[in-house]
Design a protein that fits this description.
This protein is globular. By secondary structure, it is an alpha/beta fold. It is 21% helix and 38% strand. The longest helix has 13 residues. The protein contains 2 helices and 8 strands; from the N terminus they run βαββββαβββ. It has a single domain, classed as Roll (2,3-Dihydroxybiphenyl 1,2-Dioxygenase, domain 1), CATH 3.10.180. Strand 6 and strand 7 form a beta hairpin.
Length: 125
């Protein structure tokens, strides 16, 4: 079982704003701030962003891919909208993804550093 994940970001403060909006849409809150890392979670730190100022821009979107469970299709929709409003890029609008299983409802976004973040809920079809 995975306890937590982390992704690298060039600008910690800008990314904190992005992730606070995006993860807030699916029930995460900013839980901990350190000089070079920030943690978000529902009850404990589950998702960390780590400052990597020398990291080159990701030209081919080959950053990390993290899938996060959302409580509902509405939360997935809110996640996607929040990401776009906060400067992210869509990599798949909210919708059913039958190729991933029955009721798999997801949205995919790229953060400003090219990391691919997914929100998924399982819905009755």
């Amino acid at each position: 079982m995975i306890d937590h994940v982390s992704v690298a970001v060039r600008d910690l403060e800008a990314s904190a704003g992005f992730y606070e909006a995006v993860l807030g849409a699916i029930g995460y809150a900013l839980l901990e701030t350190r000089p070079n890392t920030i943690a978000f979670g529902k009850k404990y730190p589950e998702f960390w962003i780590n400052r990597r100022p020398g990291m080159p821009p990701v030209a081919d979107d080959s950053g990390a891919h993290v899938g996060l469970r959302a409580a509902s299709a509405q939360a997935v929709d809110a996640f996607h909208a929040a990401a776009l409003a906060a400067g992210g890029r869509s990599d798949g609008a909210p919708g059913l993804r039958p190729q991933h299983g029955e009721g798999y409802y997801a949205a995919f976004v790229h953060d400003p550093d090219g990391n691919r973040i997914e929100a998924v809920a399982f819905v009755k079809t």
